[in-house]
Amino acid sequence: MPATSTEQMTTLAGTTVIVHPLVLLSVTDHHSRVAARTKKRVVGVLLGQDNGKTINVANSFAVPFEEDEKDPKTWFLDHNFIEGMFGMFKKVNGKRLIGTTAKERMIGWYHTGPKLRSSDQEINDLFKKYISRPIMVIVDVRQETVGIPTDCYFAVEEIKDDGTATVKTFLHVPSAIEAEEAEEIGVEHLLRDIKDSTTTTLTTRLTQQLASLRGLRSRLGEIQGYLQQVAKGEQPINHSLLYSLQDALNLLPDLEEPATTRSFRTTTNDELLVVYLSSLVRSVVALHNLVDNKGSNAGWEREEAGEAGEPEAKSEQKKANGAPVTGEDKKKEEADKGL
Predict the structure, then answer these.
(1) 15 contacts 168 by C-beta, under 8 angstroms
(2) Backbone angles phi, psi at 115, to 5 degrees
(3) Is residue 223 over pLDDT 60?
(4) Residue 312 placed within a domain
(5) Bias category Basic and acidic residues: which stretches (predicted)?
(6) Residue ending a domain, choose from 135, 164, 186
(7) Coil, helix or strand at residue 336
(8) Which of 30, 48, 59, 317 is most buried, judging by how many CB atoms fall within 10 Å of its CB?
(9) What DSSP element (H or E) covers 196?
(10) Domain boundary among 137, 152, 186
């Protein structure tokens, strides 16, 4: 592996990896078939297009893989299977019509980590027999995963500033989940089938925001841990990574600036005023409904009392007029009284 200069690492760090939903579905299915309810990971090949600044991961296939849990350096990857499967994919891609999606080539490999392993460098060196610069994508298939479930890396041999021996390491590059029109239609149909009718739009939005905040907290924790390791000398200094962190921190507002503090306070007060007015409106509406309900109940009680008093009033009226009260009138009066 040729040594990578700081300029080359900066160029690699600017590469964006686009992962399609079909790949995530295939990796999840692979893991559920082979390593469900175990701590094993699965390995496969990624297919797509490498356009320099953008790597499009459009497809994948699983590869037989075994490793010793006690000795990570002991592992097996079926080379013949990779060559046979890729040969079939090339035949399929060769028959595509003009104007369709570009041909899919072998661009890297994936595993379900969910973190980097000590044998990843050796496996990546193996894939260099087929690809000049393989991309490694770690797909986290755990249900409790928040945020984007993919982490993408390039293997590099970093040159030390102090002139010491180079070190093999992995350079993290940004990734995104995107889909073509046909994939979007399929995903929409899947989501429509599993959609919970009892879940409201507000609940869904709050759940998504909570998941985003959890993902942000997890990423901030990883950044904090890395910086602490660098400060203790446990990790080498990566200037490009530190520059990226500094750029991100420069975007944050200065909370010690009076104008910024005043703006935050004004915005918070406006939002709290809206919440307060909403609470007042809800209280007024609740009181209005209570008064209406009480009035309706009183009207029903008066109507029931009027209907119950009609037989007695008729009997008294007959007596006052001197008309005899018959037995049928008495039976009807007793029946109305519930006797």
Answers:
(1) no
(2) -125, 175
(3) yes
(4) yes
(5) 300-319, 327-339
(6) 186
(7) helix
(8) 48
(9) none
(10) 186
Please indicate, yes or no, whether residues 179 and 283 belong to a single structural domain of this protein: no
| Number of domains into which the chain is organized | 2
User: What are the two backbone dihedrals, phi and then psi, of residue 26, each rounded to the nearest 5 degrees?
Assistant: -65, -40
241: closest CA among 159, 176, 172? 172
Give the structural domain span for 158.
6-186
What letter represents residue 167's amino acid? V
CATH of residue 83:
3.40.140.10
Tens-place pLDDT, residues 44-83: 999 999 988 899 999 999 999 999 888 878 899 998 899 8
CA-only gyration radius of the chain, Å? 36
Residue 161 has pLDDT above 90, yes or no: no
> Which tokens hold the place of 172?
């993290």
3-state helix, strand, coil in the chain (%, to 5): 55, 20, 30
Q: Is 330 part of a structural domain of the chain? A: yes
Structure confidence at residue 168 (pLDDT)? 85
Residue 196 lies in a domain: no
Q: Is 171 left (phi over 0), alpha (psi -120 to 50) or beta?
A: beta
What confidence tier does 87 reach under pLDDT thresholds 50, 70, 90? confident
Dig out the tokens for 90 from the structure: 């090339």
| C-alpha dist (Å) from residue 52 to 14, 16, 55 | 10, 9, 7
Residue 339: pLDDT band (50, 70, 90) is very low
Two structure tokens written together for 138: 């770690």
Average pLDDT over residues 109-113: 93
- Report residue 212: phi and psi, to 5°: -65, -40
Residues 123 and 170 sit within 8 Å (Cβ to Cβ): no
* Lowest mean pLDDT across 25-29, 89-93, 234-238, 330-334: 330-334
**Co-location of 60 and 172 in the same domain:** yes
Residue closest to 120 by CA, chosen among 174, 159, 171, 164:
171
Tally of residues, the chain: 339
CA distance 108 to 126: 11
Backbone angles phi, psi at 243, to 5 degrees: -65, -40
